Amino acid sequence: MSEYLEHELSTRFTLLKLWTHSSKPKFFKQNSNLIKAVVGDTSCGADAEMIESLPRLEIVASYSVGLDKIDLEKCRAKGIRVTNTPDVLTDDVADLAIGLIMAVLRRVSASDGFVRSGKWKDGDFRLATKFSGKSVGIVGLGRIGSAIAKRAEAFRCPISYHSRSQKRHTDYKYYSNIIDLATNCQILIVACALTQETHHIVNHKVIDALGPNGILINIGRGAHVDEPELVSALLEGRLAGAGLDVYENEPKVPEQLLGLDNVVLLPHVGSNTKETSKAMADLMIKNFEAYFGNKPLLTPVL
Ligand code: NAP
């Protein structure tokens, strides 16, 4: 829980802190008739069990744009409102996607380690790979995907994408099939929503289509990528590198990745800047104030 959000919530509402209780069932038993609103984030939302435990629940607010930790069907069936924090985090996540590309291709972490370890005096660092002009394929041309595309255009990268539908507002090349996208780009960036359909959307076939010179960047959710397949491809040289902000079982990261210097590993920090975490908290608070003031939600999902 962000300290700022915790403070802002506690000054306006009665805040019950599930994360300070060791027994979830006991917490729900004690408080189920009090709780009208739930605040979730990327690691904990409102699943079916929680929703069933809270008979007075009216609204779920996610401190994230991703909705994969919320049982949307259950919320819809019970008339529970849902909000998230879109747009305010788009720039940060897109910036970091470009940062990951740069870090992997130009080996930023490895060359930083080279200087720190004192090896420079023994010779130059090995050559890296150019970013400008590389073809970029984006899985999910939504808010974040589009912001990444705009940034990559500034690096003169040809852009193509795969989404459920072709976008009318752009000339980027559209592939209705992710394998065709992966075959035709050098850097594949995952920026789509995590749903049942996009679980493991990057699988063995997609990784092989991207090929031994390809780079995978994941700033969506860990479960978009079949992680054991990714690890095997990297170990076997079937993929040139990867930049990952998210993992299938956070905070666990596959052990084999830790030893690879063609991989850059971030601890799910896509939107974690001081500016954006405040903007996300303010948006969530405004949604709650609107809801409990009988006004329209600012960013309704349901
Ligand atoms: P968005 O505007 O709703 O975009 C989501 C995109 O996912 C859309 O382009 C959508 O395609 C695509 N998509 C959905 N289902 C698909 C499918 N079955 N196959 C292919 N594409 C599919 O959301 P956003 O604001 O850009 O955020 C995108 C995701 O980024 C979030 O859901 C979240 O998981 C992730 N995220 C990560 C971080 C981080 O810290 N790493 C931070 C923020 C967000 P259509 O347009 O065709 O429907």
TrEMBL record:
Residue span, D-isomer specific 2-hydroxyacid dehydrogenase catalytic domain: 32-301
Lineage: Eukaryota, Viridiplantae, Streptophyta, Embryophyta, Tracheophyta
An example Gene Ontology CC term for this record: cytosol
Keyword Oxidoreductase among record annotations: yes
Organism this protein belongs to: Acer saccharum (Sugar maple)
Location of the D-isomer specific 2-hydroxyacid dehydrogenase NAD-binding domain: 98-270
Protein name, as recorded: Hydroxyphenylpyruvate reductase
UniProt-listed InterPro entries: D-isomer_2-hydroxyacid_DH, D-isomer_2_OHA_DH_cat_dom, D-isomer_DH_CS1, D-isomer_DH_NAD-bd, NAD(P)-bd_dom_sf
Keywords per UniProt: Glycolate pathway, NAD, NADP, Oxidoreductase, Photorespiration
Organism superkingdom: Eukaryota
Gene Ontology molecular-function annotations: glyoxylate reductase (NADPH) activity; hydroxypyruvate reductase [NAD(P)H] activity; NAD binding
Pfam family, one: 2-Hacid_dh_C
